[in-house]
Design brief:
The complex is a heterodimer of chains A (305) and B (284). Chain A has 305 residues and is mainly alpha-helical. In chain A, 79% of the residues lie in helices and 0% in strands. Chain A folds into 2 domains: 71 residues, no CATH class; 210 residues, MetI-like fold (Orthogonal Bundle), CATH 1.10.3720.10. Chain A contains 14 helices and no strands. By secondary structure, chain B is an all-alpha fold. The chains are: A mainly alpha (305), B mainly alpha (284). The interface between A and B is large, with 54 and 47 residues.
Chain lengths: 305, 284
Amino acid sequence: MYAFLVKRIIHTIFVVFGVTLLSFFLIHLSGDPTGLLLPPGATNEDRAEFRQRMGFDEPLIIQYKLFLFNAVKGDFGKSYYFNQSVMKLIGERVPATVELNLVAMLMALGVAIPLGVISAKKKDSLIDRTGMVGAIFGMSMPNYWLGMMLIILFAVKLGWLPTSGRGGFEHLILPSIALAAGMWALFARLTRSLMIEVFSEDYIRTARAKGLKEGRVVLRHAIKNGMIPLVTVVGIQVGQLISGTVIVEVVFGWPGIGRLIVQAIFARDYPTVQACVLILAVAFVLINMLVDVLYIYLDPRIKIN
Amino acid sequence: MKSLRRLLESKTAIVGLVILALSVLAAIIGPSIAPYDPHEQQLKLRLKAPSWLPGGAEGHWLGTDQLGRDVLSRVLWGTRISLIIGLSAVFIAGALGLMLGLICGYYGGKIDTIIMRLGDIQLAFPFILLVIAIVAVLGTSLINVILVFGVAGWVIYARTARGIVLSLKEKEFVEAARALGFRDRNILYGQIMPNALTSMIVIATVRVGQVIIWESGLSFLGLGIPPPIITWGRMLAEGRPYLSTGWWCCTFPGIAIMLIVLGLNLLGDAMIDAFDPRFSRESS
């Protein structure tokens, strides 16, 4: 178990290092980054002065070392567009993104697990078929489009919920549903498959034979043992969640990191884009490492092996 | 052949195939049957509801947008570009991933370690975030969008192909080919690759749908293909300010995306059931 942990941590350090490298090279993709960072009308003198000031005239390896050193300190420079420290800017936006993502994830799991279990128990019934057809539709629609449809129905036509912005819980409902829909569909399908397999296991038959109530069999035996693979998929889906957040935040005017990235791209504020991409990717890597560690605790077979 | 028969007997596959056939048909003949020029602006007919609704504009089945352009004609034109991007990007990603996966699995060693670790690093980036960042730096154009989706999408194919090669390279038919003096290249492409193709095709089928959704998202953000090429994502972005006065501008392009992706997902599901009996048992 400890060997696995050490191996996993070394792998994570390596990937985080690679992520910093790729993030650094992002703004060098088009060649000279001064072309990206300065306005199109900048003179050659402006460019030369800027190149020297930013250290772009140094060899790439030196520039990368400086970038890495500053990133470790949490110093990503100053945003040209927002006129404040990039780290402070990100710090202000993180809570909104975390809030939206957490609620969306809880919503997806809260709907998917019961639906998946019921579908598995009543396999091929009307409820199973309807749920699974709904799930495949959920996986097929762009979440930002679903968001707009929800706005038309619940905000414009019925006037029940706000169209955009961040405030009370009512502001969270529509963006969370939009973000949760794709994940909900995937989790429900996976839960169904896992539960169908678990329900045919001997230990479930034994539990039933002992006279345990069906609710207890499902909750204490089937879900507890059968859902472990779902933990890994939840970890992987955090990446999809972050991707979805970028567009859903724009649709709902949600003041999170996703909207900040899009604002920064259009303002050609590349240091902010670079920092956001790096931070989100590192967060994703760390979450996946935590999920793997959690998996060890949930599945005793890994501890033994 | 048995797998193919199983696939064609599946209702899910048939529904998926019918949806896809209609989409491909729309992409091919759509522009010729479109009732209007998709760029033609009729400012007197701005934001007119579909013809089947009270007060709808006659002849405009799906209504008109904020510039009086026919929504149906634009949706039909958009089908072509969505399919072109989805198929081309997936072809590039699949070919690249398959080639790298075969090499990694067959030769192993340092080259395997380097390529697979590069894949790990790339997978650390939420996919659409990486694509947005690269397109933002490189600039928006049809070619850039296809290339970025293509190049950024190789990892899943490489990992799958590598796994298949690892499971096959010690098998008797490969040993036999080696004993008969076949070259590595011939063994890899002639003997092993055909076994990996089925899995590649299954992944690619579902992936085309995902690329179509991602591309529409990119266009929605204004980072996709620039005008005058019509994309469903940009139609959604342009219609967004008119959600209260012209809901049809956003609704129909979204339904088009959903239908085409639904067709691909249904077909993909049926293919998994038909080609991989192990998976079929798990999910039945």
